[in-house]
Amino acid sequence: SLSLVTPVWNRGTSGIRGLSKAVDPEGSQRKGRTLLQFLTDRFYDVEAVREYLLRKQVLKVQKKNRSVTYIKERYGPYVAGAYFVLKLGGSVKFRDREWMRADERGLSSLEFRKLQEVPLEAVDASGCAINYQGLDNLLALKELQSLSLRRCPHLDDWCLGRLYQLADSLQELSLAGCPRISERGLACLHHLQNLRRLDISDLPAVSNPGLTQILVEEMLPHCEVLGADWAQGLKVGPEEQSQDAPGSPIPA
Amino acid sequence: MNIQEKVPLRGPYWDGKVSEIKKKIQSIFPGGAWSPLYDTSHLPPERSDVVIVGGGVLGLSVAYWLKRLEKQRGAIRVLVVERDHTYARASTVLSVGGIRQQFSLPQNVQLSLFSAEFLRNINEYLAVVDDPPLDLQFNPSGYLLLASEEGAAIMEHNVKMQRQEGAKVCLMSPEQLQKKFPWINTEGVALASYGLENEGWFDPWCLLQGLRRKLQSMGVLFCQGEVTRFISSSSHMETGSGEQVTLKRIHEVHVKMDHSQEFQPVECAIVVNAAGAWSGQIAELAGVGNGPPGTMQGTRLPVEPRKRYVYLWHCPQGPGLEAPLVADPSGAYFRREGLGNNYLGGCSPTEEEEPDPGNLEVDYDFFQEKVWPRLARRVPAFETLKVRSAWAGYYDYNTFDQNGVVGPHPLVVNMYFATGFSGHGLQQAPAVGRAVAEMVLEGHFQTINLSPFLFSRFYFGEKAQEHCIL
């Protein structure tokens, strides 16, 4: 199957932070980063500047996830949730309408006024920088049926602990490719008893994908869980090994 | 006048002296043993603004917040003195690592809520340039506290208070409980409270290492040694009503090095007692409790070490991935550990069954007689289990009311306490550290009001009793 983990995670948070120590694509980048480390160890000014830049990156993500309370009060929770997702770069689908995505011109307020009472049914926030605070806007959508959070770089186990509020309506959830989600966060999905489709493939932080899939399937008996093949990670058995030997071509 | 006539240069006294002087002069010359500059890199500094006794999670948290809330960068010099750098007997690393908001005092709920927020954003609080982010291994599975008939009303009252403070806790009836967790036997359970968000368990060692790393980058000094003595001065003052009080001020802390008699007197302005299970001994060294009983001077710090066992067992048919940390009304508790159907758990013994805290040996009979029957009654699948291993750790048990002691001592004016949390210190450490730092820097609590946790309550007899102790 195709790998869903794009380098968004590395691109978005590497650079001066040096998070991707284990992944080092180019030699010249490595040289540059070591020089920076050398300077940081020896000069307080360099260290202070780097700490400031790190802090600024974090504040940027927090700013994106601010609650849109003024829109919520004026137009209602559905429009507020849709505005939030569209601003982050995702797409939404209201009931009986088509999928909407923000275009280059931005979001026009005219369409929103018409959709105040229409419940939001599906949200696709794939690749968006949504975090724990930003989930506030999504959890108010009480008729949400499908939620797609693929490859979200800031979504972690704490955020999954909040999804129980959508238990009544949520039927489809996709968490594929999120780098920070582990089997511990998946454990709190048991509240979502109406869930029918769950996608937990390609989670790099899950230590044992096959076993996790079995345990999640036991936890959610009515749900179809797409994830790693349960045989993944199992060792080759003895009968398969002996089949290889006579099967190999012997030159005449 | 010749000096040699007055003082004889021969004789028993002078002979000894001359040979001593000769030896000293020989050692000063190159090649000799004496050197005016000797290596003191293993000793703590001679002067420090704040000395924190105890390098566990509470001590490190106080150090972190002191450095974070200081007005100018580098204004406060902090020294953390820890007796054992392997943390072999420290309560932090032997802890089960749970965090919950289900307490009976509003202050405890607020402390846990802030600590949950700290742990959630730990990579913003404890970020160090060029170091990988921390993974606390947090399981957001929540706590499930069960109550029998007698405790049901109190539990309902507590949950109402917790929800007012902002904790996300819900009440469940036995039928709802049976439906949600079919592996529970709801016999004897009248009510259950289930924490939905910000509750679970995490890896305390990771938090400790993260704090240490961040503190080293912030310039906090660490020292491995034992505090053996406090040098203090007293001043006699009169209160408004004419009573005589003796106020003490600690000037020096003597830190003795490991496996040697060498010690370093550290001059300090403030001492923070975060020594955990041994805080009582440190307080005695400072003179807390030296006085006639029934007076403020004679009030000891009622914190003593209590041994608690944690057992790890394997049960193939046990509760699944959704299992929270379940606490039985009888006091037994358990939680899942990892993916392989392993479980951790234990039980707090009653006063009569308290084990001897002299060592950390594990008593497996306690599991057979006290813990297993209670667990097997609550979860029938636990009839067939196999104990894999066990360990023991200390609670810094506050015998007065099982809640923490925070803030300055009224008579030893520059000793601050951050101890006595009786089993919930780890989960409240970030918030308590902030409270103590605020007390030291500002003089009063700013964010969370912990005045019910001050030392003076031991003298006045005002108990801030915590009922939900595990």
Automatic annotation (TrEMBL), chain A:
It comes from the Eukaryota. Gene3D superfamilies: Ribonuclease Inhibitor. Interacts with incompletely assembled mitochondrial NADH:ubiquinone oxidoreductase complex (complex I). Required for the assembly of the mitochondrial NADH:ubiquinone oxidoreductase complex (complex I). Involved in the assembly of the distal region of complex I. Belongs to the ATP synthase subunit s family. This is Distal membrane-arm assembly complex protein 2. The lineage of its organism: Eukaryota, Metazoa, Chordata, Craniata, Vertebrata.
From TrEMBL, chain B:
It is found in: Mitochondrion inner membrane. The keyword Glycoprotein does not apply. SUPFAM superfamilies: FAD/NAD(P)-binding domain. GO terms for cellular component: mitochondrial inner membrane. GO terms for molecular function: oxidoreductase activity. Its cofactor is FAD. InterPro entries: FAD-dep_OxRdtase, FAD/NAD-bd_sf. Pfam families: DAO (PF01266). Gene3D superfamilies: D-Amino Acid Oxidase, subunit A, domain 2, FAD/NAD(P)-binding domain. GO terms for biological process: mitochondrial respiratory chain complex I assembly. Its main location: mitochondrion. It is a single-pass membrane protein. It comes from the Eukaryota. Required for the assembly of the mitochondrial membrane respiratory chain NADH dehydrogenase (Complex I). Involved in mid-late stages of complex I assembly. This is FAD-dependent oxidoreductase domain-containing protein 1. It comes from Muntiacus reevesi. The lineage of its organism: Eukaryota, Metazoa, Chordata, Craniata, Vertebrata.
